[in-house]
Amino acid sequence: MGFKVKFWGVRGSIACPSDKYIVYGGNTACIEIACGGQRLVMDCGTGLRNFGHWMMRKGVEYADILLSHTHWDHINGFPFFSPAFRDDFEFTVHAGHLRSSGLTVREVMAGQMVQPMFPVPIDAMSAKLNFRDFDAGDTFVLHDAITVHTTPLNHPNNATGYRIEYAGKSVCYVTDTEHVPGRPDRNILELIAGADLVIYDSTYTDDEFPGKVGWGHSTWQEGVRLCRQAGAKRLAIFHHDPDHDDRFMAQLEKDARHLWTGALVARENMRIILS
Predict the structure, then answer these.
(1) How does pLDDT run across 254-270, given as a tens digit for each residue?
(2) Which fold has domain 3-274?
(3) How far apart are CA 41 and CA 8, in angstroms?
(4) Is-contact 19 49, C-beta < 8 A?
(5) Could you give the 3-state DSSP secondary structure of residue 250?
(6) Calpha distance 11→268 (Å, rounded)
(7) Sign of the CA dihedral 34, 274, 217, 211?
(8) Would you list the domain boundaries of the chain?
(9) Could you report the per-residue pLDDT of 31-67, keeping only the tens digit for each?
(10) Structure pTM?
């Protein structure tokens, strides 16, 4: 079996359920990576709900969930993840950004499911849930075949970037992160060097960025610059700003393709096969 990537949610900050977001999608961050018979899930945004329905239809009973961080738009699909309420499913949730906070990933995921914010507690989830905290910068192996490299990212409350290597191919997931203009992030360059696909935080354009400094996000143009410098093969522009509707994104896609033929814009339900 191959190495496949599917985008279940591509939006940043907040979900956008509107007819202005049909082409590119309105659900927040969730990506499925299929490595042979194993499933990795990058983040638990609102796109996780549809992925969960797919898991139940297909009878896929286990997945590793790798969190970039635990801001709401990256975890608020978890309480609506239907397989987690079935005792024949199992999930391991990994996070690399929390140790300095004194919190565990289980505490944070459970914390969004307490009254009066949410009526159903995490203990109502009957699936086998495993929680694993690590330090961003660690490397580990999943299922004896999938190598995961990680790096810390520049984001409020910290975040983790990932490089997934399997069967001679590599996918990097780099969101949420803020760049410093004119100073390429060395952590990211090392992580994405020669990667087959880089999924990068492209919330803003370079023109918008000066008004957003300190918000913890980057631009699609910076993604292109990093990929070119690191010798990466393709860039998936990701984590679209909620104010960037389909019309805006269509023009952005044209501009990106004109700047670099290796750039593409992630859309909900898009599949990429690394062969």
Answers:
(1) 999 999 999 999 999 99
(2) Metallo-beta-lactamase; Chain A (3.60.15)
(3) 10
(4) no
(5) helix
(6) 9
(7) negative
(8) 3-274
(9) 999 998 999 999 999 999 999 999 999 999 999 999 9
(10) 0.97
